[in-house]
């Protein structure tokens, strides 16, 4: 009888898998039959300190006790050589690699004019550069075997906007461009690449203030959105059932899954003799103004309670 497990026999790397969303993905991938490389250096939410090897080892122990197969990895995705060692461990341990989930991330929020250069660069390195490093290391194996799946994590902070997250938003929107480029470049080799924007309670949003009753109620609602609500979408995108899905952006929020829009022209203006700064001020911009986007934040667009 054929297996009903969607990832049976596949080898999947999940970065930042020691806690939260990454842990949920690793557990489900293993339950769906995958051999999982559980990567997590055990650092804090800002990329410093932390618990070292412990989180990744605990997830491996959970998977093993449940009858699954997994190995722990403690490398950082923020540098090219350590990141490549994550992929190498999959090859050395299991002899192949079928999927990469770029979930690792840190937060260093600050209003823009007060954001340090270090805070900007480190968030870019972990999220955007880290997604590139692991994907690039896996790409040649995917090319050789003519198959493979990438799932990258984006955010509505980049897709829509949020206060105090210029570093995070820039990284997360950059990941969208990275994913689409991988999808275009590697589709001929049977490789797909997609983005997921998660709504889930995790350490990375655990610092939200709870001083007012409204804030407390909001956090209580968010705490109901566990990482287990994100994992099924990710596992599906890694499976053979989703091999024709590529270059897309999805969002997962409680029991809702959204297909997100991508930038396309909205409307245009034309002037036979060309435009001047004056004619743009008088005619061009007023003609376009009704289609301008507001300075929305994520919460303005996703304004209803999850169910």
Automatic annotation (TrEMBL):
UniProt-listed SUPFAM superfamilies: NAD(P)-binding Rossmann-fold domains
Limits of the Ketoreductase domain: 10-207
Record-linked InterPro entries: KR_dom, NAD(P)-bd_dom_sf, Peroxisomal_Beta-Oxidation, Sc_DH/Rdtase_CS, SDR_fam
Superkingdom: Bacteria
Pfam families the UniProt entry points to: adh_short
Recorded family membership: Belongs to the short-chain dehydrogenases/reductases (SDR) family.
Protein name as annotated: 3-hydroxyacyl-CoA dehydrogenase
